[in-house]
Amino acid sequence: MSNCADSMSCVILAAGEGKRMHAPHSKVLCEVSGKPMLRWVIDAARAAGIEKICVVASSDDVKQAAEGCEIREQKERLGTGHAVICAKDFLLENQDGNTLVLCGDAPFIDPQTVRDAYAQHMASGAAVTVISAVVEQPGAYGRILRQGDALAGIVEAADCDERQRAICEINSGAYWFSTRALVEALGTLKNDNAQGEYYLTDAVAAILKSGKGAGCFAASGADIVLGANNPADLLLLNEIANRRAIDRHLANGVHFLSRDGVVIGPDVVIEPGATILPGSILYGSTKVCAGAKIGPNSLLSNLTVGPGTVFNASQGYDSRIGANAHIGPFVHIRPNSVIDDKVKIGDYVEVKNSHIGEGTSLAHLTYIGDSDVGRHCNFGCGVVVVNYDGEVKNRTTVGDFAFIGCNTNLVAPVTIGDGAYTAAGTTVTKDVPAGALAVGRARQTVIEGWAAKKLQKYIAKKSK
Ligand code: UD1
Ligand code: CA
After folding, report:
1. Residues recognised as catalytic
2. CB under 8 Å to 437, separation ≥6 — which residues?
3. Ligand 2 centroid vs 81 CA: distance in angstroms?
4. What is the percent of the chain with per-residue pLDDT over 70, rounded to a whole number?
5. Out of 73, 381, 406, 426, which residue is the most buried by the measure of CB atoms under 10 Å away?
6. How many angstroms is it from 153 CA to the middle of ligand 2?
């Protein structure tokens, strides 16, 4: 198959409207397990070994999301056939090979189905191979007409007679075409049908009529056709994706106490022996190593969690945490942070764009931004790195074995040397050399008897 890769290309139709979704963006960008549907489709084509991929889009958000693919614009949505016509020059560039057409809103098309359909397509010598599925409720899908085993046609739901409407083998909207035959057939499309659209299915009809050979590959599962037209459909896709993801990780030796509220994206890696507790959402390229414990109630996006690390009731984005660290509860790890082994980060601590060295403890109520913190430091409660002066963000450096007292402000840019101390309540504006103590606070004065008069008034008021 890989030696055919050069001759394979793919056109993904992603210019449809989807008003019923009521989404603030294009329908194909609605997310299933935290990943836009269009990216599921692109990744399936890639995983099937197809490198030349063209996305037909009508909006800027889709063009952006189609990063890494060629893009052709469909300015007016005149139907699936018209959408493919918009990619005609892409087809011509690849006309000696075969083109897979996919729908950008059917995320469960899988590489195996794509490959198996390609194998049948090549073996049969057909000019088109329609990928079909048998479903319980054929609803609005195009129906597959067969004569014996052979494909006899596709009829759109809107154009079906009663007998045709009862057919449960439906057109998935995915096809392998001989590219040259596709280009030729596109030239014959007309919009004289119930919806007044240029149907891609009519290209199949034209190929059938020409006698160049048209076949049908019946996919093994019905899910490959599933798309989403409204929020209820989208929830169903999420439920299916999620059930599958958890099943896959269970089979691989990952522990779960419950499926409740656990959401795992398709590209997440979890090593055997890790535990995922209820309410944990793992998105993107998140990786959880063996023996780590995630949750309850945590959100991880593109986060790596090292072996044996606890990540409890916290959120982390685009960052790395080492081995045997203890994070949470209620910690926010913001992008571009590296947390080394055995670090302890406790409640209400935020870390952003910072490196925290091995064994350091940030136990409570602390903000660390744009900082490089050494090994085995102790930060008291309420330390704040003042990283923003209103114009620019500056970096702060803290050496190894430093002790930052409670309620210290570190006004960046500033450096605390190895083993230095800051007294509680200190606002550090100048560098502190290694081994020194910085005290930066007003000396305490005591005014004897000052409170007594006030206190009497207060007690009188409360005693009324
Ligand atoms: C199409 C098929 C139908 C099949 C179904 C599978 C046709 C005529 N019918 O129907 O047989 O059962 O898919 O889901 O092809 N799109 C564009 N531009 C357009 C119209 C659509 O890019 O002008 C894209 C959509 O974003 C979507 C895909 O094409 O990703 C399918 O479009 P959709 O309107 O859902 O096609 P259906 O009418 O459902
Ligand atoms: Ca559809």
Report:
1. 364
2. 420, 421, 422, 423
3. 13
4. 99
5. 426
6. 18
**How confident is the model over 323-351, as pLDDT tens digits?**
999 999 999 999 999 999 999 999 999 99
- pLDDT tens digits, 193-211: 888 999 999 999 999 999 9
| Nearest ligand by distance to the CA of 132 | 1
| Residues contacting ligand 1 via CB (< 6 Å) | 13-16, 28, 56, 74, 77-80, 82-83, 103-105, 140-142, 154, 156, 170-173, 199-201, 227
Pocket test for ligand 1, best of 19, 63, 80 (most atoms within 8 A of CB): 80
pLDDT of 4 higher than 70: no
Cis check for the bond before 329: say yes or no (omega within 30 of 0). yes
* 3 pLDDT tier (thresholds 50, 70, 90): very low
Write the CB contacts of 402 (distance below 8 Å, at least 6 apart in sequence): 373, 374, 377, 378, 416, 417, 418, 419, 420, 421
Token digits of residue 240: 């299916």
Neighbours of 452 (CB within 10 A): 8
Our CA dihedral for 277, 282, 288, 291, rounded to 10 degrees, sits at 0
- Residue 163: CB atoms within 10 A of its CB come to 8
**CATH node for 2-225:** 3.90.550.10
What pLDDT sits at residue 6?
66
CA of 227 from ligand 2 middle (Å) equals 7
CA atoms of 49 and 52, how far apart (whole Å):
9
Superfamily of domain 255-438: Hexapeptide repeat proteins (2.160.10.10)
What distance in Å separates the CA atoms of residue 156 and residue 369, rounded to the nearest whole number? 57
What is the best residue among 39, 86, 103, 167 to mutate for testing ligand 1's pocket, by most ligand atoms within 8 Å of CB? Answer: 103
Ligand index nearest the alpha carbon of residue 228: 2
Instruction: Break the chain into its structural domains and give their ranges.
Output: 2-225, 255-438
